[in-house]
Amino acid sequence: MPQATTPKFPKRFLWGVSTAAHQVEGGTHNQWTTWELEHAKTNAARAEYQYNDLDSWTEIKTEAKKPETYVSGKATDHYKRYEEDFDIVRRLRMNAFRFSVEWSRIEPSEGAWDVTAIEHYRQYIGALKARGIEPMMTLLHFTLPIWFAEMGGFEKRKNVKYFLRFVEKVIGELGKDVKYIITINEPEVYATESYYLGNWPPQRQSKWLWWRVVKNQLYAHKKAAKLIHTASRRYKVSIAKNSAYFYAGDDAWLTRASTRMMQYFQDDYFLKRAYRQCDFIGVNYYFSNRVYGYRVHNPDEQVSDLGWDMQPENLQYVLERLHQKYKLPLIVTENGLADMNDERRKWWLGKTILALQGALREGLPILGYFHWSLIDNFEWAHGKWPRFGLVEIDYATRERRIRPSAVWFARILRRLQE
Ligand code: BGC
To answer: Which pTM was predicted?
Structure first.
């Protein structure tokens, strides 16, 4: 059980949930939309081969074998039902909400701004503010307008100017009521999935392109942060960094050396180059990796529905390490698990609160925690079967049902906020 009294969470601590436009809004039209439609049948046909060794297989198989699972489509219909969702955020006693603005809505063709979409996000942010919820706005969360993807996206340095023009527009139009801004979500995950592993559009497998895309996003982050800070120093800017905790499974020299190296590539390769243009570090933490020799071999004592080894307590070490290295305030911008039966979410949340308390006890400047996610959503190439929500969605009716773990979490938050 988390200890509600000691140590205290700061008064203005941000307790929130995190989302991304394409995963919840419905009706988006970007490089994913077309790819999903082209690959839905193949993804469904491959499901058995891909997932049948998961503990969750018997329960997920019906959904995982359906082509429509791999199409975001109407998703949770959050684009239309956001007021209802923000009411749930309040009911869950949260005071912050992370979302992304969908570039392809705001600039559907090159240089043409959609005033209706901009107005939508203005209302959207207004609806958060009206409920006393602090918005955190992500400018890029894996999705690109089709015209930008067709010109090569982040493969080319000269394309970055289009992203910067978009950033300038968004800050000018929507910046007034926003303070926390994430320039790019998990730049390396995007590069790795799309250009190294070839799992995501445009499904390339090229080390050279991977490196270009990492470098160009780094450049894009730096330029975007500069532009935002020039607009006003009141903005607090970061990236959302995919982090993980690596630990040695034995005491061998090779194990210790490769653990250090893996941790370096996981966190520092990118952060070392990006943190000077950050006011805080946004940390996305989902799993740890136990290293033996030069390989990862996890204990897998508790695994999520996606088969991820769950060690929620290690969040504390991730935060401590990042703070020691970069001396910046920290915000957990994502953290959560796929758990369709809501069997382990309460356990995860409890351990996570303890990890946060442990880090606070060490004196770390942690400003907030955003759980991934408010509601079940479209989990990229895995489609809709992984269930990450504090709130369950029935995709047939779009009905929202608050999960028991979320009710419990809200009760704990109430005590922590007293
Ligand atoms: C991403 C989210 C995703 C989550 C769970 C993060 O890598 O930012 O979009 O849904 O992890 O996999």
So the answer is: 0.97
